[in-house]
Design goal:
The protein is an alpha/beta fold. Helices cover 34% and strands 25% of the residues. It has helices spanning 38-48, 63-74, 117-120, 124-127, 141-150, 163-166, 183-190, 198-205, 245-260, 264-281, 291-297, and strands at 2-6, 10-17, 29-36, 52-56, 58-60, 83-85, 91-96, 102-108, 132-136, 155-159, 179-182, 211-215, 221-225, 228-232. The chain is globular and about 50 Å long.
């Protein structure tokens, strides 16, 4: 099956604190760079799992943008629908605690506002060759609505990306299944103050969306399908960096949905294993991720 990944493709910078955070002053630590972007990360993981992938995004006419495209090309991903802007390629900077948990994320992503329906229109014939589309909320709201209309006879799934960006998905929830988001994003999307846990968030989301997954970090996830909610505990993992874990969860789940295993909840289990492998790798995407590795975890 061919899958279209539409959204962010940029560079991630990870700063790991050398000790407890001291606000308002310089903190010792280390900084590394990696490829990132929700849609891009999902695309790379899906390619490693053996799926045909078409990447749709926008990069700058700069060294970073060319590196992003070259990396995708090297994995056999179709990059013909990636367009080039005069703006710099986007970036995401994550400041992490020593245990890998996120302290602060800084997103420089104005370039994605240029991914308009007019920009995507020439790629539509190629997109319609893909049976499943995954979008992230880095895209403009009008573009998300255009995508929902254009893919109405196909499968459309989405990732909420952040608390603020999640609200852009409000107008397309009737078209999306599954939806991926965390507890805070679920509260933002539904306009409530907070949810006590992933299960309560999933039960509320199940009233709006056919299927999806609410993540809760090391505690695991709550997945739902047709109103049925299941809480799934994460396997113990030695966390090096949580960046990219949610994207690996999406890719593993979509791999399962598109023929990897029978049943939505079993597919989510594959996604959770992909996430565990990723947080242990120390990279946004795990270079050693394979379908065989995911299957072995289910034995």
């Amino acid at each position: 099956m061919n899958i279209a990944c539409i959204g962010g493709a940029h560079i991630d910078r990870h700063g790991v604190l050398g000790g407890p955070l001291i606000p308002g002053t310089s903190n010792p630590g280390t900084v590394t760079s990696d490829f990132g972007g929700v849609a891009r990360n999902v695309a790379e993981n899906l390619a490693r799992l053996g799926r045909g992938v078409r990447m749709v995004s926008r990069v700058g006419d700069d060294e970073t943008g060319r590196a992003v495209v070259q990396r995708l090309d090297s994995l056999g991903i179709d990059t013909s629908a990636i367009t080039v802007s005069e703006r710099p390629t986007a970036s995401y900077t994550a400041i992490l605690q020593e245990d890998g948990e996120l302290v602060l994320g800084l997103a420089d992503m104005a370039i994605y506002d240029e991914i308009t329906p007019a920009v995507l229109e020439p790629a539509l014939p190629r997109l319609l060759e893909c049976e499943l589309w995954i979008v992230d909320a880095n895209l403009p709201e009008a573009t998300l609505r255009w995508i929902a209309d254009a893919s109405s006879h196909l499968a459309l799934t989405a990732d909420a990306v952040s608390v603020v960006k999640s609200r852009k998905l409000t107008g397309i929830l009737d078209f999306v299944s599954p939806l991926f988001l965390n507890i805070a994003q679920a509260a933002s999307l539904l306009g409530v103050d907070a949810f006590a846990d992933a299960e309560s968030a999933a039960r509320a989301m199940s009233q709006r969306v056919l299927s999806g997954v609410v993540t809760a970090g090391a505690s695991g996830v709550a997945a739902w399908l047709n109103g049925e909610v299941r809480v799934m505990r994460a396997r113990p993992a030695t966390v090096r960096d949580v960046t990219g874990a949610g994207d690996a969860l999406i890719a593993g789940t979509l791999f399962g949905i598109t023929g990897g295993v029978p049943g939505f909840f079993r597919a989510v289990r594959l996604g959770m294993e992909a996430a565990a492998i990723t947080v242990e790798s120390g990279s946004t995407t795990a270079a050693h991720l394979t379908a065989e590795l995911l299957y072995a975890s289910q034995d």
